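W.,

You were right to be curious about this one. When I first looked at the sequence I had no strong expectations either way, so I just let the prediction run and decided to look at it fresh. Below is the sequence, 566 residues in total, followed by the output.
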Amino acid sequence: MANRLFRKKTVEHILASAQSAKSGELAKVLGVRDLVSLGIAAIVGAGIFSTIGLASFNGGPAVSLLFVFVAVACVFTALAYAQFASTVPVSGSAYTYAYVAFGELFAWIIGWALILEYAVSNMVVAISWSQYFVSMLAGFGIRLPGWLTMAPAYASEAYAKVQEQGIESLSKIEQTAALAYEHAPRIGDIPIIFDLPAGLITFLVTWLVYIGIKESRTASNIMVAIKIGVILFVIFGGVFFVRPENWTPFAPNGVGGVLSGVAAVFFAFIGFDSISTTAEECKNPQRDLPRAMILCLLICAVLYILITLVLTGMVNYTELNVKDPLAYVFEYVGMDYMAGIVSVTSVVAITSALLVFQLAQPRIWMTMSRDGLLWKRFAQIHPKYKTPSFATIITGLMVAIPALFFKMDFFVDLTSVGTFFAFILVCAGVLYMDYSGISKQSKFKVPYINGRYLITIGLLLAVYGVYIFGQDTIAEWRQLSWRDMLEHKMLTIVFWLVWVVLCVMGYIYRFSLLPVAGILVNLYLMAQLGASNWIIFIAWLGVGLLVYFGYGYKHSKLNKMENATP
C-alpha cells in the first residue's frame, strides 16, 4: 500500500491524458500578455487595497523591506513554478507538479491545500470588495442598512463593547457595527446580519467565469488597466504629500513588528501561481507561462514597495490601521475628491483578483477529477462555453457562503498556510527533477548555482547573525521550558532542522541553491504564522485525507491501471 500511495505520473502520461480528452478540450486563447494581465489581476487585489494598511500599522515604514524580502522569496518560487510549467504544461498547477515529483498522496495533499488557498483568498477579496463598495455608495449618498454589509461576529463584538465601555469609546466603524446589531431584523432573539455585497459579487464573477475564458480574459484586461492606473495615481499623486519625518522611526516596533505583517504582505503577493492553472488554455504554455510568472511578479513587487513608502510618508504609520488605506490617506491630507476616485476605481480593481481565483480553483478540481481522485462531474466541460461548469458552480458556492457570514481577519493568515506549503513542495520538486533527470525535458530551467558549500555557509552566517543581533530572542528562548518550546516554537525548530538536513543533502547531491533558498525562505515565513491557523489547516487536511481514502485511492486512474496490469 505504501508504494501505491506514492505512485507517480510521468510527464508523458500526463500530457497524453490531457490530449486524450478531445470532447472536453478547453479553448486555447491566452498569450503572454493575457497571462501577465491575469497574474497582475490576481496579485494586485485585496492585499494592496486593504491588508497593506494593517501591515504598515504594525511594522511602520520598514514594512517596505518586508515587501522586498517576500518578493525575493516569491521570485525563487516563481522560478520553480516556471520550470514545472514548461515541463508539464497542463492545468493543475502545484497539484500536477507534485504528482510528477512526489507521488499521488502528496499530489492530493497539495491539491486539497490549493482548494483552501484559492477559496479563502477569494473570501478575503470578496469581503474587501464589499467594504470598498459600501464606502463608494456612501460617497454618493446611498447608505445600505448596516446589517446587510458585515459579518455577524463583527457586529456582535462591537455591540458587546458598547455594553462594557459605552458607545463613545468606540471608533466610528465599531459604532456603525453596534448600531447594525441593535437595529437588525430578528428571528426570535437571533439578529439577521450578513454581508450581501460580498455574496453578490462572488455570484456575478462566478457567472462570468462560467460563460467562458475569452470573456474572462477581456474583463480581466480592462480591470487590470484600471487597477494599475489607480496605483500609479496614488503613487504620483501622493508623492507630493510625503513628509520624510513620517519615516522616522523607520521600524518603530522592531523586527517583531515588521514580521507580524508577514501574513498580510505575503497575501499581497499570492496569485502568480494561479496562472499556471490556465496552461491548457494557453497558445504556447511552455514558452509563455515562465515569462508571464516572472514579469507579473517583478512589476507587482516594484509597485508594492513604492506605494508602501508613499503611504507611510503621507501619514504616520499609527493612522493606517484602516480597511481602505489608499483612499484614507487622501482623506487625511484633505483631498476628498482623490479619495473618492480611489474608492470608485478600487471597487473595479479588486474585482479582477476575485475573477482570477474563481478561474483557477475549478481547474484544480477538474484536474483532480480527471485523475480519478474526485467524482467525475468535477471534470465535466460545458459543451458550449468550454469551461469546467460543475466545478465552477461548486467554487462559487464555496466562496460566496462563507463570505456572507465571516470576518476578513479570520481568513488572511489561513490563506498563507496552504500557499507556503504548496510553494515549499514545488521548490523541492525542482530538486527532485534535477536529481531524476526530468529536468532534461524542461524548456525553462531554474538557473543552476551549485549549493554544495553555499547552503552550509548560509547556515553558519545565519547562526552568527542571530548570535550578534538576536540577543533578545536568545534571552527569550532561555526562559522557555522544553514544553513551551515544543508548544510555541515548534515551527522555528523545524526550520533550523530542515536547514541542517538540506546542508547534508546539498553536499551529497550538489543541490541547486535557488530552489533551496525558496524552501528556506518560505519555511521561515511559514514559521511566523499563528498556531490557530495551523490547527485549522491540519483539520482541513484531515478532512481531505478522509475523502482521498474514502474515494480517491480506489478510483485513481493509476490504481486502475496497476490493477489491470498482470
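Here's what jumped out at me. The longest helix spans residues 104-139. And, maybe more interesting for your project: Residues 352 and 360 are 13 Å apart (CA to CA).

Coffee later to discuss?

I.
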